[in-house]
Design goal:
mainly alpha, F1FO ATP Synthase, 93% helix
Length: 88
Amino acid sequence: MLSSVLLDAAVSGANIGIGYGIAGLGAGLAAVGAGIGIGRIGGSALESIARQPEAINDIRSNMILTAALVEGAAFFAMVIGLLVIFLK
């Protein structure tokens, strides 16, 4: 009887730990994905500016807007992942 209760507590604790780990992993993946996406946006913008220097203002404003949208989506994903950890 006592061993059954201890086993249930251990399994329950392991499940909580796995949930925290997965939530943390999701938040980390969101940050890494945003970094890669913003890097690609910047690289593509620099290539575009090199090909058409006269369009630098349009390219720059579109690059900043797109990077802000990517960063906002990544921030939202990280907040959701961290909320799972703190509210569980």
